[in-house]
Amino acid sequence: MKNRRRRKGPKKTHRKNYKKSRTQTFDRKFYSKEDIFISRMASILQLPKGEIKHLFYKRSRTTIRLNHLIADPRKTFRFLTQTKGWELQKINGFKDTYFINNADKSVVSKTEEYLNGDFYIQDLASILSVYILDPQEGEKILDMCAAPGSKTTLISAMTDNKASITANDSNLPRIGKLNNVLHQFGSKNVRVTNEDGILIGRVTPDHYDRVLLDAPCSGEGRVYLASSKPLRFWSIKRVKSLVSVQRELLDSAFRALKPGGTLVYSTCTLEPDENEGVVTHLLKTFKNARVESIDFVDGLDVLLTKSIRPGITKWSGKEYHHSLSKSLRTVPSPEMMGFYVVKIGKG
Ligand SMILES: C[S@@+](CC[C@H](N)C(=O)[O-])C[C@H]1O[C@@H](n2cnc3c(N)ncnc32)[C@H](O)[C@@H]1O
Predict the structure, then answer these.
(1) 26 falls in which pLDDT band (50, 70, 90)?
(2) With bands split at pLDDT 50, 70 and 90, how would you rate the model's confidence at 326?
(3) Is 145 among the catalytic positions?
(4) Which CATH number is correct for 124-346, 3.40.50.150, 3.90.79.10, 3.40.50.11600, 3.40.50.880?
C-alpha cells in the first residue's frame, strides 16, 4: 500500500519546465502602463507610437466662447483683447468662439470676467458635440449626464434661453456644481434633476425633441502624459466595466427621444467598445434607431478637419455596425481633445 502512494511535488519533467519558465521570465520585457496606453492608442488611431506619444504629451490650446447670456460679446472681445492684451483667434464655424494664443487656462480662469460668466472656457471637441446636437428654441431637450454643465450652458446660449432644458446627473455633489455653473453663466429654463439616467427613458418615453448623452467614460481623450500620474484612473479593466452602464444609458436616452428627434451620444474616450460598440448594441436592440450623417463638420477649417476621423467599423477582431463610419472621432491635437460623437435618429 505504502509503495503505491503518489510522490509529493512535481514530476521530473515538470521540474524541467519549471526551470525553463523561470529563465523566460527573466528575459521578458517589462511594459509600463504608459507603454500599454500608447500601443492601444496607436492601434485605435492607426498612427505610429512616436506620433501618439507626441500628441499625448502636448497641452491643448485655451478655447473660450463669449457668453451673450451675461454680457455683450463685442464688449467682452474688446476688453479681453485691448485691456487684457489677449490674442484671440476666431474659430470659423463656431459663434463667438476663440483660441487664446498667449494666455494659459490657469490665468484665464482666475479673471473677474470669467468668474462673472462673460465667457466660458471649453474644449472645442466638447463644443462640437453640442453643435452636432443643434438645439433649437422652443424644444424640449434632455442633457442626461449634465454635470458640471459645460454643454448645458452652451445649449442655453445656442437657444437664447428659449428651450425647455432638463439637466440631469446621478451624482449629488456634482449637481451642486451644475447649479453653480448654470447660475454663473446665466442659463434659464433649466430643470435640474438628480436621477439615475438609466431610468429616465421608461419614465418619460418619446418625450424629448433632442437628447444629449455625454456618457461617463474612461477619459482617454483627456490624458496629458506630462502631468503627474496621468493614467491613475485608466485601465483596460475599467474600460470594460464602463460598457454596460453606457449601453443602459444609451438605451434609456433613445427611449426618452421623440420619434423624429435627434440623439447625440458622446464620450471623451477613444475606445471603440465604449463608442461604436455601445451604439452597435443600440442598433441591434431598436430597429427604429439609425445613425445619421454629421454634415456640420464639412464646412470647418482644415486646421480642425485634419484631426477628425470617421468612426471605426472593425477593430481588434471586432466588427461594429457599418453605418458607424458616419460617426466621428477627434484625434487629440492642440486644437481639440480626443472625443467621439455620433448622431442618432429615431424612426
Ligand atoms: C462626462 S461627465 C459629463 C460632463 C458634462 N456633460 C459636461 O459637459 O459638463 C459624465 C457625467 O455622468 C454622470 N453619470 C454617471 N453615471 C450616471 C447615471 N447612471 N445617470 C446619470 N448620470 C450619470 C457623472 O456623474 C458625470 O457627471
Answers:
(1) low
(2) very high
(3) no
(4) 3.40.50.150
